[in-house]
Hints:
- The protein is an alpha+beta fold and 101 residues long.
- It has a single domain, classed as Glutaredoxin (3-Layer(aba) Sandwich), CATH 3.40.30.10.
- Helices cover 52% and strands 21% of the residues.
- It contains four helices and four strands.
- The chain has helices at residues 2-23, 36-52, 64-69, 93-100, and strands at 26-31, 56-61, 77-80, 83-87.
- A four-stranded mixed beta sheet has the order 2-1-3-4.
- Helix 2 links the parallel strand 1 and strand 2 (56-61).
- It starts with a helix and ends with a helix.
- This is Redox-active disulfide protein family.
- Residues 26-101 form the Thioredoxin-like fold domain.
- InterPro entries: Thioredoxin-like_fold, Thioredoxin-like_sf, THIRX-like_proc.
- It comes from Dichelobacter nodosus (strain VCS1703A).
Amino acid sequence: MAKYVVAHFMEIVMHLCLKILRLIRMKIQILGTGCSKCVKTHEIVKKAVAQLGIDATIEKVEDVMEIMKYNAISTPAVAVNGEVKIKGRIPSEQEIVDLLK
Protein backbone atom coordinates (compact mmCIF):
# COMPACT_ATOMS: atom_id res chain seq x y z
CA MET A 1 0.00 0.00 0.00
CA ALA A 2 2.78 2.44 0.93
CA LYS A 3 4.52 1.81 -2.40
CA TYR A 4 1.30 2.68 -4.23
CA VAL A 5 0.87 5.91 -2.25
CA VAL A 6 4.48 6.94 -2.89
CA ALA A 7 4.19 6.09 -6.59
CA HIS A 8 0.95 8.06 -6.89
CA PHE A 9 2.47 11.01 -5.03
CA MET A 10 5.50 10.98 -7.35
CA GLU A 11 3.21 10.90 -10.38
CA ILE A 12 1.35 13.96 -9.10
CA VAL A 13 4.62 15.78 -8.39
CA MET A 14 5.94 14.99 -11.88
CA HIS A 15 2.70 16.20 -13.45
CA LEU A 16 2.89 19.49 -11.55
CA CYS A 17 6.55 19.94 -12.42
CA LEU A 18 5.75 19.46 -16.10
CA LYS A 19 2.99 22.07 -15.89
CA ILE A 20 5.40 24.53 -14.27
CA LEU A 21 8.05 23.85 -16.91
CA ARG A 22 5.51 24.60 -19.63
CA LEU A 23 4.97 28.01 -18.10
CA ILE A 24 8.67 28.71 -18.54
CA ARG A 25 9.81 29.39 -22.09
CA MET A 26 10.99 26.12 -23.59
CA LYS A 27 14.32 26.02 -25.40
CA ILE A 28 14.66 23.56 -28.26
CA GLN A 29 18.01 23.08 -29.93
CA ILE A 30 18.61 21.43 -33.28
CA LEU A 31 22.13 20.03 -33.18
CA GLY A 32 23.76 19.52 -36.57
CA THR A 33 26.17 20.98 -39.05
CA GLY A 34 23.51 22.29 -41.42
CA CYS A 35 23.09 19.16 -43.55
CA SER A 36 19.80 18.47 -45.34
CA LYS A 37 18.67 16.14 -42.51
CA CYS A 38 19.35 18.89 -39.97
CA VAL A 39 17.36 21.39 -42.04
CA LYS A 40 14.46 18.93 -42.31
CA THR A 41 14.56 18.31 -38.54
CA HIS A 42 14.42 22.07 -37.93
CA GLU A 43 11.35 22.36 -40.19
CA ILE A 44 9.62 19.48 -38.39
CA VAL A 45 10.30 21.00 -34.98
CA LYS A 46 8.93 24.38 -36.11
CA LYS A 47 5.74 22.72 -37.35
CA ALA A 48 5.29 20.77 -34.11
CA VAL A 49 5.79 23.89 -31.98
CA ALA A 50 3.25 25.77 -34.11
CA GLN A 51 0.78 22.88 -33.90
CA LEU A 52 1.01 22.85 -30.09
CA GLY A 53 0.96 26.63 -29.82
CA ILE A 54 3.70 26.59 -27.20
CA ASP A 55 6.10 29.38 -26.36
CA ALA A 56 9.49 28.03 -27.37
CA THR A 57 12.81 29.24 -28.65
CA ILE A 58 14.19 27.10 -31.45
CA GLU A 59 17.93 27.41 -31.86
CA LYS A 60 20.21 25.82 -34.45
CA VAL A 61 23.54 24.69 -33.01
CA GLU A 62 25.96 24.13 -35.89
CA ASP A 63 29.34 24.50 -34.18
CA VAL A 64 30.92 21.04 -33.89
CA MET A 65 32.61 21.83 -30.57
CA GLU A 66 29.29 22.98 -29.11
CA ILE A 67 27.52 19.88 -30.44
CA MET A 68 30.17 17.69 -28.80
CA LYS A 69 29.28 19.21 -25.41
CA TYR A 70 25.90 17.50 -25.77
CA ASN A 71 27.55 14.14 -26.54
CA ALA A 72 25.58 14.10 -29.79
CA ILE A 73 27.97 12.20 -32.03
CA SER A 74 25.22 11.43 -34.56
CA THR A 75 23.26 14.29 -36.03
CA PRO A 76 20.70 15.62 -36.41
CA ALA A 77 19.86 15.71 -32.74
CA VAL A 78 17.13 17.50 -30.82
CA ALA A 79 17.67 18.83 -27.30
CA VAL A 80 14.89 20.20 -25.11
CA ASN A 81 15.98 22.57 -22.35
CA GLY A 82 19.55 21.32 -22.75
CA GLU A 83 18.79 17.59 -22.66
CA VAL A 84 19.26 15.56 -25.84
CA LYS A 85 16.07 13.64 -26.56
CA ILE A 86 16.64 12.44 -30.14
CA LYS A 87 19.87 11.86 -32.00
CA GLY A 88 21.08 10.40 -35.25
CA ARG A 89 17.84 10.57 -37.22
CA ILE A 90 15.05 12.77 -38.51
CA PRO A 91 12.12 12.56 -36.08
CA SER A 92 8.52 12.53 -37.20
CA GLU A 93 6.35 15.54 -36.46
CA GLN A 94 4.16 13.40 -34.19
CA GLU A 95 7.23 12.27 -32.24
CA ILE A 96 8.18 15.90 -31.60
CA VAL A 97 4.60 16.76 -30.62
CA ASP A 98 4.56 13.86 -28.13
CA LEU A 99 7.96 14.90 -26.80
CA LEU A 100 6.89 18.50 -26.19
CA LYS A 101 3.49 17.76 -24.61
